[in-house]
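Problem: given the chain below (129 residues), write out its structure.
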Amino acid sequence: MKIAGLLLLAMVAGGVMGLLIQAAFLLWGAKLAGIEERSYAKALVTAFLGGLASLLIWFVLGGVPLRGTLLAFLAGFAVVALIMVPIFKTTFGRALGAAVLAWVLGWVVMGGISLMIAILFFGGVAALF
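Solution.
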């Protein structure tokens, strides 16, 4: 029972951390998209509501092979943009740009971190030989 509680706690903590990181990338994307009225609190609310809405869309469309997965993926960006429009007081185009930029920036940063870890690890392994 203790292990199940610890696993649940770890899952909740990981979800909260993921939400905070996602909001940071969304704020960065909003800045690059030129959205004027941006704040971390607005990005956090958008990330939370957008995540819930995207999850719902994924449940509905995700079961359809290939087309459903692609539609759910693209609809996720559109839903986050629709949620951003009233919260950030911006246009749909800028909100969609910010959502896509947040996704791309997340992959670029995580790729860079992974590359640095790989270089450090394989560089250390190469020094052994």
